[in-house]
Amino acid sequence: MAFETAKSATQSIRQRLTRLYYGRDTAAIRFQFALMIIDIAIIGFFLAGPYLRDRPSYLILDYTIAAWIALELIAQWSATYPARRYLMRPMTWIDLFVLCTLLFPQWLFNFAFLRVARIWAVAQRPVFTLMLNRLGLKEQTDVVTAFINLFVFLFLVTGFVYTFFFYREDAGTGFIDALYFTVATVTTTGFGDITLPGTAGKLTSIVTMIIGISLFVRLAQAIVRPYKVTFPCPECGLQRHDADAVHCKACGHTLNIPDDGL
């Protein structure tokens, strides 16, 4: 009897978490919005890390954030059916690695720059898309997503360059130099006043230029191309169509795309 009661209570908690994480009612939206605000505060702490790491309060904040991320990982795992789908998400493994860097900062501090990848967690919240819609930015969703991808890449590379090439400099100066180098490399400006030494530095510059320019092109495409909606064609499965499309451009099947009740 006690086992059945505990099982029923666990099932009820999981259903409530699922509704809060993936629902669209008022309570779910408020919950998701609160999580997004917390995510943004955590990202702010990560970006300020080079300036705060020598302060006594740094480890307190570090372990507090670790406890929060661990709690949210457990909650998301409980809210996702089946659990295998949750484990297949790239963001799950990024969060797990970020958690490790928080729990063992003395040994994994060199990989702390990966924490900025949690910006993707903000963009993946259902409430994020809802906010864009309410702000009248529904047609710019692809642009915002492309900009976030570029922004995350810039700070990932900046963190990597700072950690492995500018770590001997003052935290403030070293981070700014790393950011300056990254932006100059990604934009292919190449002033040459700050360069990375050795073969590792050249390889880092090559990878940064190739991926960075690809993300720039992706952002430019999102800005100039016509807005498209995600609506799978029931005949051929094509996902993207013009918002006012009547027929699928791949197979000619008649579409019934909802208007801005979407």
UniProtKB/TrEMBL annotation:
Gene3D superfamilies assigned to the protein according to its UniProt record, in alphabetical order: 1.10.287.70
Bilayer-crossing regions: 33-52, 58-75, 96-123, 143-166, 203-220
Record-annotated Potassium channel domain positions: 152-224
Transmembrane helix is among the record's keywords: yes
Protein name as it appears in the record: Voltage-gated potassium channel
Keyword Ion transport: yes
GO cellular component, one term: membrane
InterPro entries, per database record: K_chnl_dom, K_chnl_volt-dep_EAG/ELK/ERG
Key words, A-Z: Ion channel, Ion transport, Membrane, Transmembrane, Transmembrane helix, Transport
GO molecular function: voltage-gated potassium channel activity
